[in-house]
Amino acid sequence: MDPNKNVIVKIEDLHKSYGQEEVLKGISLDILEGEVVILVGPSGTGKSTLLRCINQLTVPDAGRVWVRDVELTDPKTNIDLARQHIGMVFQSFDLFNHLTALDNIMLGLVHVLKMDKDAAREKAMMELDRVGLANKYENYPGQLSGGQKQRVAIARSLAMEPVVMLFDEPTSALDPELIGEVLVVMKNLALDGMTMLCVTHEIGFARDVSTRIVFMEHGNIVEQGPPEIILNNPKLERTRQFLGKISDLH
Amino acid sequence: MEIFTTLIPYILRGLNITLSVTAIALSFGLIFGTLLAIIRVYGNQALARLIAMYVSVIRSLPHILLLLIIYFLIARIVNLTPFWAGSVSLAIISSAYQSEIVRGAILSVPSGQMIAARSIGMTRKQAIWYVIIPQAIRHMIPPWSNEAAIVIKDSSLVYILGVPEIMRQAQYYSGRNPTKPFNAYLAVAVVYFVLTFITNRGLDALEKRIRIPS
After folding, report:
1. Contact call for A156 and B135, based on CB within 8 A
2. Residue A205 C-alpha, separation from nearest chain B C-alpha, in angstroms
3. What's the whole-number mean pLDDT along residues B55-68?
């Protein structure tokens, strides 16, 4: 890690349990400006929970989270204000079903950032163009393919000018032939220098664009490091075994 | 000919009141019912339980009995005309049913919609208003159409309070023309049918109009 870069996300000793089951067992993780961190691990090991604990969509039981210099786990923090600049993309897209692609992006600009409508429309069109869907601006989510929906969802987050983007298995619900178009958008985003934390099983994407791979299991970070080391020469046999399995699949 | 000169004017005098009672009961019932539903889904637990109880009490009593109970309760507190007391009573009854309709519609909106709205920094209130309610409205129309039909017919109940809506007018008429009671009641039946038919057709059209393209 480059000590000259700013820490964008700082996670300190994060704990979360659902009933008897402890899903996060004291996670600490720093993400620097411009880093693309890929979170991998078997399902049910708390990757999504960790992501949601960052923007407090899930409230952790203990531990602290900062984004930039704002502590999100501080009850005095205005969480709505903080979330404005933390982008999140979901496995199930979750576009607003009653709004066109353009209006999906405009909604936050108008009601959260209080932009005037004309400026918001212009900005929203720009973001749609960035994900290659300017021609679909009038389409409703029900009229878009899965890949297109996810690209609009990414545009919706980007329009808010986030300091970090959180991706929660963004391609897991997509047909194989639609995964590529979403990964291209994400790759361009990474090349533009966006700070990203991404839960995914797309090992190819991790190899190509990530700066770090974090392997999680049973609520702990087991091993982490640059992709060339984690993918080719991990310290732990368990990491090798897991990555070997998902590489076979993809 | 007598039908046109006396019967129809009689009924028409009541029609205005029937329409007003229905409109008041439905609209206040909708506002109040929506509020109850939102509190029940998003509000605090104790309040939600209280509302659930309110709804189940109202749903288990005959409307005519409720009308009398609420009417006499209202009469103890404020001095309302029978017209307003009757309309408000029907609104209270309808609010219980409408709150269930709205609640069902809200719950049918996928949970990811709220999460996505919050993730871009919307407050809970903004998310409910701009994301959840607009989608819930679309799910609401068919059951609401049913409730509207019930309230149109329930508006006749206020006649026991002496409010001269069309049922009451028909009774007056029959009282004065005891040889032809059938005409008046038949005319009233036609009016209810037409009102309900038009309302349901109108709501069907609205549902199609605001349907989300897919």
Report:
1. no
2. 25
3. 94
Structurally, how many domains does chain B consist of?
Answer: 1
Give the closest-approach CA distance of A156 to chain B in angstroms: 8
pLDDT, one tens digit per residue, over B165-178 is 999 888 888 888 88
Q: What is the mean pLDDT of chain A?
A: 94
Cα gap B158→B20, rounded to integer Å:
12
B98 within domain boundaries: yes
Sequence-ordered list of residues with C-beta below 8 angstroms from that of A131, at least 6 positions apart, any chain: A151, A152, A154, A155, A158, A185
**Is B55 a domain residue?**
yes
How far is Cα B60 from Cα B97, in angstroms, rounded to an integer? Answer: 11
The amino acid at residue B194 is V
CB contact under 8 A, B120 and A96: no
Domain region containing B136:
16-162
Q: For the whole model, what pTM was predicted?
A: 0.90
ipTM higher than threshold 0.90: yes
Residue B121 is nearest to which of A94, A95, A112, comparing CB atoms?
A112
How is A167-208 classified by DSSP, letter by letter?
A: EESTTTTS-HHHHHHHHHHHHHHHHTT--EEEE---HHHHHH
**Residue of A85, A94, A110 to mutate, interface with B, max B Cβ within 10 Å:** A94
Question: Would you say residue B112 lies in a domain?
Answer: yes
pLDDT digit string, tens, across residues A32-70: 999 999 999 998 899 999 999 999 999 999 999 999 989
CA–CA separation, B47 and A12 (whole Å): 37
3-state secondary structure of B200: helix
Inter-helix orientation angle B166-176/B8-42, to 10°:
150
Show Cβ contacts of residue B119 under 8 Å, excluding neighbours closer than 6 positions: A55, A57, A83, A86, A87, A88, A90, A157
Cβ <8 Å between A157 and B120:
yes
Q: How far is B115 from chain A (nearest CA, A)?
A: 7
Token reading at A53: 């604990």
pLDDT tens digit sequence for A97-117: 999 999 999 999 999 999 999
The CATH number of whichever domain residue B20 belongs to comes to 1.10.3720.10
Closest chain A residue to B138 measured between Cα atoms? A98
Residue B196 lies in a domain: no
A56's enclosing H/E stretch is: none
